[in-house]
């Protein structure tokens, strides 16, 4: 059973992903969530608090989805091929069945360019994602100190670009080859040159 706060946040994500950040108001979220007027405001007194709540909920749902794609909450890729499979699965999921949430996430990224407080909140959450990626890369043998951190940043940035391109271009080529090359470059940089 979903609690009302989660229902409100999921409705806000739906609104962002279908109508954009300008449409995000407490009243519109109440309407989409089908909750009594004022419910969103009870949980999130300001628009900024609502946006931060949405960012937290996006991260929570992303973690659950990555765990599901990996096969289990504690499962991590055991080799390069499994990592490529995981990342390809995520790209396809993010641009197909989860496209609305992905568009909501990108709407937040664009808004963060103009709002320093939001930029900081987005960066905190992206940093957590990079840390998760760096741990995974280190477990798979990324060479040298700092290589897994740099590799995680490269992977996250590349995946964001691939996802954005797939959502905005109408073109959806198989992302596997590009992801395979990036993973190879990160895990075996001397081989990729």
Number of strands: 0
Q: Give the proportion of residues in helices.
A: over 70%
CATH class: Mainly Alpha
Radius of gyration: 18 Å
Give the CA-based shape. elongated
Cα end-to-end separation: 51 Å
Main beta-sheet annotation: none
**Any idea how many domains?**
1
CATH-derived architecture: Orthogonal Bundle
Counting DSSP H or I runs of 4 or more residues, the number of helices is: 10
**What is CATH's topology name?**
Tetracycline Repressor, domain 2
Order of helices and strands: HHHHHHHHHH
Instruction: Classify the beta-strand content into a percent band.
Output: under 5%
SS class = mainly alpha
Low-pLDDT windows of residues: none
Name the average pLDDT: 87
Short description:
Helix content is 76%, strand content 0%.
Please give a structural write-up.
This protein has helices spanning 4-19, 26-33, 39-43, 47-70, 80-95, 99-112, 116-139, 147-169, 176-187, 189-192. It is mainly α and 193 residues long. The chain has one domain (56-192): Orthogonal Bundle (Tetracycline Repressor, domain 2), CATH 1.10.357. Helix 4 runs parallel beside helix 7 and helix 8 (147-169) runs antiparallel to helix 9 (176-187). It is built from 10 helices and no strands.
């Amino acid at each position: 059973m979903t609690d009302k706060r989660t229902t409100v946040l999921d409705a806000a994500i739906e609104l962002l992903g279908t109508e954009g950040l300008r449409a995000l108001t407490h009243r519109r979220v109440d309407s989409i969530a089908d909750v009594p007027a004022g419910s969103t405001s009870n949980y999130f007194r300001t628009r900024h608090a609502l946006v931060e709540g949405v960012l937290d909920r996006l991260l929570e749902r992303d973690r659950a989805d990555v765990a599901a794609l990996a096969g289990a909450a504690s499962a991590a890729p055991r080799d390069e091929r499994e990592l490529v499979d995981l990342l390809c699965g995520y790209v396809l999921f993010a641009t197909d069945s989860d496209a609305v949430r992905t568009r909501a996430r990108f709407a937040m990224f664009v808004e963060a360019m103009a709002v320093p407080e939001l930029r900081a909140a987005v960066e905190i959450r992206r940093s957590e994602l990079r840390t998760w990626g760096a741990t995974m890369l280190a477990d798979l043998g990324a060479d040298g100190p700092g290589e897994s951190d740099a590799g995680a940043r490269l992977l996250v940035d590349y995946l964001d670009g691939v996802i954005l391109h797939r959502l905005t271009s109408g073109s959806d080529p198989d992302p596997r080859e590009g992801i395979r090359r990036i993973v190879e470059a990160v895990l075996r940089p001397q081989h990729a040159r």
